[in-house]
Each structure stands twice: as structure tokens, then as C-alpha cells.
Amino acid sequence: MERFKDRVAVVTGATSGIGKAAAIEFAREGAKVVVAGRRAEKGEAVAAEIRASGGEAVFVPTDVTDAGSLAAMVKATIDRFGRLDCAFNNAGIGGENFKPVADQSVESWNAVMATNLTGVWLAMKYEIPEMLRSGRGVIVNTASNYGLSGSDFGIAPYVASKHGVVGLTRAAGIEYARQGIRINAICPGFTLTEMIEPALAHAHDAFLADVDRRVPMGRVAEAREVARAVLWLASDDASYMTGQTLSVDGGIISGC
Hints:
- With 256 residues, this protein is an alpha/beta fold.
- The protein is built from eight helices and seven strands; from the N terminus they run βαβαβαβαβαβααβα.
- The chain has one domain (8-193, 221-248): NAD(P)-binding Rossmann-like Domain (Rossmann fold).
- The protein is 48% helix and 15% strand.
- It has a seven-stranded parallel sheet with strand order 3-2-1-4-5-6-7, with helices on both faces.
- Helix 4 (106-134) links the parallel strand 4 and strand 5 (137-142).
- The model has no long low-confidence stretch (mean pLDDT 94).
């Protein structure tokens, strides 16, 4: 199946986890892929893996907290492939863990907001004009199940940033609905990525016990499981969806 044949997809935060899995899946389904991220060695490795499997991909160094960097990434995409059809704005950080609101540092708050929320807005700021030029496009933003609920893990800045992504996605989805651009958000639950490594290191058994208690399916997701949902949102199969959030969380939100 090649749902993205002759299309160009950008994936931010594509050097690991859900972003890497999505970049590989986009390429597997025919897309030309721009692997965007800060870690050059890992990004080049993802692009090389795609090319080794017969796909087309290029790594573009990108810092989503820097407007100039995102503008340059989109320009590099157009210069290389001539168009931009799909964007998965996935780059994110967790910030400080296991700290109540009043104990969070200003530095952590600012870093989390700059990456998780402002970074998504900046990405869309430069992606949308190129999509408007072609008259169509699809954007998927990474929120979280914590963009739909609270948390007792001491990660308030992360929770706030992901609620912001949900609101931003809804607003943008409405604004561009009649201009051929669909904008939705994916809300992953616990997923085997670098993001949950601090929790596993801090309290491995307690974390897994909490997953068993909170997640109706009783396990964490593989990154590829979330990536497949991203591709569905980005495909024509989801052609009547915009401004929506799709939970891929093993049933967490349904059980809240």
C-alpha cells in the first residue's frame, strides 16, 4: 500500500521514538521524507535506514525552538522536493519529573513550552503557507493523553504544554478547514520512547504497576503503533477529520 506515493512528508523530532517510527512508515508508504531534528548523527541514521530500504529521505538539522531553523527546514524541503504535503510536528521534551507545580524551575517551564507548544506553532507558521500555495495539505501535531487530562507524576509544565497543543490544533483546524488543509492532533499514552526512560529509571516496578492499573489494555504502546495512527490521520482515509484529537492510549482517557 502506497497511500503517500509522490507526496512529501516532514517529521520533526524524527531522530527517535514515535517520530522515527512515523518517518519510516511514511517512506514505506511511498512518501519522500524530511527527517528533522537536533541530533545529526541519529537523524542521518534514520534517513540512511529509509534509503537502504528503497525510500527517499534527507536529514535536515532543525531546532523547533528557533523560528529561523524551522523556516530554513521548510525552505530546504521545498528546494529539495518542490512541495510539502504532510507535516508531523512531533518534537517534544518531558521536562522535570516528579516535582509539584511550585517546585518546578522557571528554566524547565520555559524549555518545555518553547519546544512542545511554541515549537508546534512555529512549525505550522512556516508549513501552512507552503500548503496554501499548493491548495492542500495535512498536519498532525503530537499532543498527549496528558493534553486531555491531569497527572500526578509531577509534570505540570508538560501537561500544560500538551493542553496547549490540543487547543492550538483545534483553532488551526477550524481556521484552515476551507482552504484545503486538515490539522489534527495525536494523543499518545505511555509509549516505549526516550520520554518514559526517566520514569523507568526512577521507579521501574512502580511505573509498570501504575501502567497496569491505569491502562485498560495493561501495557505500554510500541512507537510503531502510534505512528500508524499518525499516518491514518495524514492519509485521505481521514479526509473528513480536522481540528480533532485522536487518543492512542490503550483506553486511558475512556477510563477517566
